[in-house]
């Protein structure tokens, strides 16, 4: 499955290409495809929402696990 970051980047690139072309038909098609990609990306979570591995401890920035 493609991620939100990937789809958003691809849509952004298509919009950039659409702005640089002088062919109005091509520009319209690129904008349409960018909108399709954005609609696919919108319902996806911003980041991986999966569970953390059991051996991963959050730290307080001191290099030690928090609560120590």
Characterise this structure.
The protein has two helices and no strands. Helix 1 runs antiparallel to helix 2. 51% of the residues lie in helices and 0% in strands. By secondary structure, it is mainly α. The longest helix is centred in the middle third of the chain and has 18 residues, at 24-41.
Low-confidence stretches: none
Specify the structural class. mainly alpha
Total DSSP helices: 2
Distance between the termini: 39 Å
Q: Please describe the biggest sheet, giving its number of strands, its sense, and whether it closes into a barrel.
A: none
- Silhouette: elongated
Mean pLDDT: 81
Helix share bin: 40-55%
Radius of gyration (Å): 20 Å
Can you write the helix and strand succession as a string? HH
Instruction: Give the beta-strand count.
Output: 0
- What amount of the residues lies in strands? under 5%
Sum up the structure in keywords:
mainly alpha, elongated
Give a nutshell description of this structure.
51% of the residues lie in helices and 0% in strands. The protein is mostly helical and 68 residues long.
List the helices and strands and how they pair.
Elements: H1 4-20, H2 24-41
Helix pairs in contact: 1-2
């Amino acid at each position: 499955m493609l991620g939100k970051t990937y789809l958003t980047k691809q849509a952004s690139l298509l919009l950039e290409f659409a702005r640089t072309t002088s062919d109005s038909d091509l520009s319209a098609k690129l904008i349409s495809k960018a909108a399709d990609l954005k609609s696919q990306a919108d319902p996806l979570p911003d980041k991986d929402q999966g569970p953390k591995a059991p051996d991963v401890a959050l730290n307080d920035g001191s290099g030690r696990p928090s609560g120590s």
